[in-house]
Amino acid sequence: MRRATYFAVVFAAVALRGAATDDPAPAPYESKAAYEIYAAVLRLHQTDRPFVVSDTTVPIMQCLQKTGDGGVDAAIEHYKAANEKRWKLKAQDPFTSDLLRSREQIDALKTPDKDGGFAYQVDPAILYLSAVGFNSNGTIAFAEADYVCGGLCGHGSPHIFRKLKGRWERYIPEPKQNPDGTFTFASYCSWAH
């Protein structure tokens, strides 16, 4: 009985966290470089299934391990600061008004499970994006994306990009040799639900 009560309280707290009415409206996200990163993320998320993008950033905060790469680690630290609040995304190329959806529009896409459980279906799928973190000279970027196709359907991962010759390219940090001869590898982190 205690365990059921505990889970009910935790679930209610999580469900109500996003529904607070005293949350300030998110400020517009004005970072031109962040929208370049979102365009690169969207190129990676091409799928046969139609999807929309939440018009407000989500502080995903899942894969923040140090990589041993100073530029990436700096971008992760900036990512943490940038995600202390939510930001309102603007409809701009490649973000057209056809792609962005408000929280209310997204909630309307969810069809509850027939049994009343946690599962639900979403059509089209929803891509949630975090705010973007950059290193100090703006050449390395870190963002996370979460693709949701239902209550128990979806996946997410971090995305690291490096700007080369004016274009953002996917970046995988090189392994670093430690003084004891061992190596530190940037961990690959992802999640599924």
Give the SSE layout.
Elements: H1 2-17, E1 27-28, H2 32-44, E2 51-54, H3 70-82, E3 87-88, E4 100-101, H4 103-109, E5 110-112, E6 120-129, E7 133-134, E8 140-150, E9 153-164, E10 167-170, E11 176-177, E12 183-184, E13 191-192
Parallel strand pairs: 1-3, 2-4, 2-6
Antiparallel strand pairs: 5-6, 6-8, 7-8, 8-9, 9-10, 9-13, 11-12
Describe this protein with a few key phrases.
193 residues; alpha+beta; two-stranded parallel sheet; 13 strands; disordered N terminus
Helix content: 25-40%
What's the alpha carbon Rg, rounded to whole Å?
Answer: 18 Å
Strand-and-helix sequence, N→C?
Answer: HEHEHEEHEEEEEEEEE
| Through-space gap between termini | 26 Å
Task: Sum this structure up briefly.
The protein is an alpha+beta fold and 193 residues long. It contains 4 helices and 13 strands.
